[in-house]
Amino acid sequence: MRRLVGKTLVWGLFFTVVLGxxxxxxxxTKIGVIVVDVQGDFTKLKNGSLAVDGTDEAYIKAVAxxxxxxxDAGYPIYATQDWHPKDHASFFTNHKGKKAFDVxxxxxxxxxxxxxxxxxxxxxxxxxxxxxxxxAVVKKGMDPKYDSYSGFQDDGGKKTxxxxxxxxxxxxxxVVYGIATDYCVRATAIDAAAAGxxxxxxxxxxxxxxxxxxxKAIDEMKAKGIIILDDLDLEKIKAN
Length: 240
Description:
- This protein is α/β, with parallel strands linked by helices.
- The chain has one domain (30-84, 119-239): Isochorismatase-like (Rossmann fold), CATH 3.40.50.
- Helices cover 34% and strands 16% of the residues.
- It has a 6-stranded parallel beta sheet, with helices on both faces.
- It is globular.
- The N and C termini lie far apart (44 Å).
C-alpha cells in the first residue's frame, strides 16, 4: 500500500510539474499587432494615388473596429507608415520617359515604378486609424534610394525600429494585417517570421493589389510557417 501511495504521489508530482511547465510556457507568449500602411493614398475612400480595390469606408471601419478590439484585449499595437521624400526612386515621375507601373532595374533588382504616394507631410500619407490606438508608428521608405515594403527593413537592408520596439515589449508573436496583401503585408509578415516571431496574418482585414499576386503571397506566407486566418478570432490567435 505504501509503495502504491508513493507511486501515486510521484506521478502526481510529475504531472503537476509538466502541466505547470506547459502553463508557464503558454504564459510567456506575448502578442503584438502590426497594422500595415492603412494610409489615405492606398485607399479608395480617400481617392488615393495608389488606391487598392476594396479599401472603402466599410473596410477602414472594419480595420478600426478590429484594432480597437485588439487594443482592448491588452495587445500593444504598432502601425507602419510609408513616409517617402518627393524624390523617392520608386516614383515614376523621378525617371524621365517612364510611366506608372513600368519596371526598371534598381540596385540590381526589379523595381516597379509607382505613382507618387505617401509623400511626407501630405494628407495622402496620413494613417486613417485613430493614432491613439498605437503604441508606436514605424515610418518606412524615407531613404530616397530604396523602396520599402516591409515594416522591418527597406530594400537596401536598413532596419527600422520595429524589431527593437517589439522586443522592448517582449512580444514573440505578431498579428499582421493591412494594405497591401501582396506587397507590404507580405513583406512585413515574412520578415517577422525570419526574425523569429510567430506570425498570424488576417486575410479579411487586408486588401491586395491583384487577386493572383495576393494568392501567391498567401501561399508564400503559408510556406514560411505563417498562420493565415480568414477573420479576426482572438481564441485562434492565442492557440496558433
